[in-house]
Amino acid sequence: MAVQSFAHPSEQLFSQLLTLYGHQWVYEPLEFPLAWNENGSPTRGFRPDFFLPHERLFIELTVLEQRLVTKKNQKVRRFRELYPEIPLLVVYQRDYLDLLRMHDLREGEAA
Hints:
Blueprint: H1 9-20, E1 26-27, E2 32-36, E3 42-46, E4 50-52, E5 57-62, H2 70-82, E6 88-92, H3 93-102
């Protein structure tokens, strides 16, 4: 099995928790266009962090401090406007940290 490269350590730890709970997942499988230029080419996109194929669910992990999530929330809102039929779960920093505490983990540790 190939070693997965993650954009942030939190994504790697989250993937291990997904696996621990028996979820199959794919990392950043699709980018959804959010805006297009006059020629119809995408100019802005959103790539959720995980897709759980058996649940047909996309997950976006947002571990930024709350004051920094405005731009991400704009993308999530636009995604939901354009693709209302596609389930998306957003896991915010508070929820992620609660999950780590529940498993007695800290970032940088393996699950």
